Amino acid sequence: MRVGINLLWLVPSRVGGTEMATVSLLRELAARPPEGAELSLYALDGFAESYPDVVRSFPSELLPITGVVRPLRVGAENSWLARRARGRVDLVHHMGGVLPLVQGATGVVTIHDLQPFDMPENFTSTKRLYLQRSIPRSVRRAAGVIVPTDFVRRGVLDRFDVDPARVHVAR
Amino acid sequence: VVTSAGTATKELVTGGAGLAVDPRDVDAIAAALASVLDDADLADRLRTAGRARAEATTWAATADATIAAYREVAAR
Q1: Are B8 and A27 a contacting pair at CB < 8 A?
Q2: Fewest CB atoms less than 10 Å from the CB: which of A28, A87, A98, A151?
Q3: What is the largest CA-CA distance in chain B?
Q4: ipTM, interface predicted TM-score of the complex
Q5: pTM for the whole thing?
């Protein structure tokens, strides 16, 4: 099983607690490589600069953009990433909560929390609108949804029309 | 630990590993913090239960569950 991990959303120091959670998980996967699973990374140059140990631990393809300009980064997920993944991996795990519209392989998405719905005041209007549209779409289209807690799983099942068998708690 | 009720972090303190309060209620946050500072027995209980909860929540378990999810999706 070949799994590509989409980290193009992870602009270091700009994505909050999901950065620490994602890097901690990757370090654990690097320390104990799973049997029968080949993991590879798609990341920004800036991620490699901030976490060279993580990038050295997996086959990695780096995109030379900062990721700060969101439309450019989202465009890359829907073009560069899809092309790179097609035929090379069996799954792409989008760890940042959004599944691109264009997919190069079967998609799995991690939903870290439902803050854009539960605490919308924490977001700018543009980001809130983007996430409130893209998260439900991502959950419905993903072959699998990974969540960190039973609380988030209940929220996903209550809010979105999704088969409970597709929502996995990884804790 | 004093954390937010109504969010995923509440799950981490159920069973006495911390106190969960409404994150929008400043008085409730202050009261919870004060109770931990003023009540040494409560602080001890929370400390013990919190450490036990932290030790049971590992990245190794998260990694195993993530790989299991991949296998389930790939098998469909």
Answers
A1: no
A2: A87
A3: 55
A4: 0.93
A5: 0.89
